[in-house]
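Deliverable D2.4 — example input (structure tokens):
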């Protein structure tokens, strides 16, 4: 074979090999085999709880028309349950150990008087709650099958990528062992479900009854626990990352509850204006707007106005990163917290604590109008504390807002207390007016305000 023919043959083989590889990569996974392999570890959960009836609104009360109104109310409440009754619901779960531990959602089993667990082969067992975590919406239950059970392998939710194939198995609308497939639509979703939101979004069909069921990757590993859907939405479901569950399963099993770390600060997100006001060139981080007295943060020296940019060696890119990182820290452990303060980064060591689950007429010279801000402020008096139901008495009170002014645009409200302006405490109307009066038009003013029980930083651009 001459050199020319050998070259052509080599190229042909290479092209065929490349084409086969591309074709194989473009093919979806073998969902038939996956479903057969994974279904035995997925269970259906039926619960029942006793619901006490509400008392009638007008029990035994006669209206002005006497018997006519009495008959009306008697007929109205005739069909209302007059004794406790059972309320039943359905959910899903998956077996995580051969001796019968099952992971599901807290909202599937919390408050249940009876829990029935049905396996894929039709056998049914009574389930016992071993641990609940309402904050993460996870629960651990146990059944005794008298033999080793098939187990769902727990994967690594950190490693998943948007666009990956996923499979959900569960009990939607009571339809047992339903299999749906889709992709990972997004990661790190915050939907307001709880303090540690970090959901995986998927378009694999998820419906009522799927709650607590597994979301698998194509390797057959659980990467999420299906938990929530969007009302009236299609193709939008949310799953708790399995790595968050793996952190708490030992505590649920051994203690029945979860103990979380506590730093002792309240924080808010940074926008560009706030970041600029602190001379910070990024909006990454969590801005401390309150340090709780005698908390770990207070004892370590963290201050209001610090911007936490790193916690225990991990970057704090978004506001919601910090609560999750702190919660996962063992109580009593000392961690390094990197903050941006006064134009410099510094590292503070904090010993993490334990999170507790339970945690009139104005005198003329007391009121001035801040023309550059479009607000009217007043010194705080006992009468104003009562009138506005104030939670504090420090600072000056906003009593009027020009709807066309910069304060209105910055979402300041009547009843807000201005505690600080550009990092300086505000003790009186006079101090506030002097501070604002020195600033030029176009200047961005950073304010710390108290709105009821919440402290917030905001910025206002002076006219």
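Example output (designed residues):
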């Amino acid at each position: 074979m001459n050199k020319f023919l050998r070259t052509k043959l080599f190229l042909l083989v290479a092209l065929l090999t490349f084409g086969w590889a591309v074709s194989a990569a473009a093919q979806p996974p073998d969902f038939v085999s996956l479903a057969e392999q994974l279904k035995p570890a997925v269970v259906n959960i039926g619960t029942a709880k006793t619901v006490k009836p509400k008392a009638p609104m007008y029990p035994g009360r006669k209206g002005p028309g006497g018997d006519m109104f009495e008959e009306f109310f008697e007929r109205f409440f005739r069909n209302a349950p007059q004794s406790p009754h059972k309320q039943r619901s359905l959910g899903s779960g998956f077996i995580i150990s051969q001796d019968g531990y099952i992971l599901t959602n807290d909202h599937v089993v919390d408050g249940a008087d009876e829990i029935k667990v049905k396996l894929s082969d039709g056998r049914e067992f009574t389930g016992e709650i071993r641990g609940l975590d309402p904050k993460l919406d996870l629960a651990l239950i146990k059944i005794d099958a008298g033999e080793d059970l098939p187990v769902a392998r727990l994967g690594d939710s950190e490693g998943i990528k948007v666009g990956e194939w996923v499979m959900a198995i569960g009990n939607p609308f009571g339809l047992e062992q339903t299999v749906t497939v889709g992709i990972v639509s997004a990661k790190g979703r915050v939907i307001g479900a709880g303090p540690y939101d970090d959901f995986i979004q998927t378009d694999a069909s998820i419906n009522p009854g799927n709650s607590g069921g597994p979301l698998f990757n194509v390797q057959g590993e659980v990467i999420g626990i299906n938990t929530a859907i969007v009302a009236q939405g299609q193709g939008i479901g949310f799953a708790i990352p399995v790595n968050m569950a793996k952190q708490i399963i030992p505590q649920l099993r051994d203690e029945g509850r979860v103990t979380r770390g506590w730093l002792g600060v309240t924080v808010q997100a940074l926008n560009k204006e706030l970041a600029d006001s602190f001379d910070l060139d990024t909006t990454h981080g969590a801005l401390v707007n309150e340090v709780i007295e005698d908390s770990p943060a207070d004892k370590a020296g963290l201050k209001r106005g610090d911007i936490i940019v790193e916690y225990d060696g991990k970057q704090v890119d978004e506001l919601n990163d910090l609560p999750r990182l702190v919660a996962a820290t063992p109580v009593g452990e000392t961690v390094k917290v990197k903050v941006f303060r006064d134009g410099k980064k510094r590292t503070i060591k904090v010993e993490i604590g334990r999170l507790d689950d339970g945690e009139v007429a104005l005198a003329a010279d007391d009121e001035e109008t801040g023309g550059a801000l479009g607000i009217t402020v007043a010194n705080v008096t006992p009468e104003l504390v009562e009138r506005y139901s104030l939670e504090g008495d420090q600072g000056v009170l906003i009593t009027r807002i020009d709807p066309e002014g910069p304060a209105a645009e910055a979402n300041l409200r009547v009843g807000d207390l201005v505690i600080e302006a550009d990092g300086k405490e505000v003790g009186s109307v006079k101090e506030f007016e002097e501070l604002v009066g020195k600033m030029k038009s176009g200047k961005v003013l950073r304010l710390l305000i108290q709105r009821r029980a919440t402290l917030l930083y905001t910025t206002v651009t002076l006219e």
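The chain has four domains: 40-142, 153-255, 261-354, 364-461.
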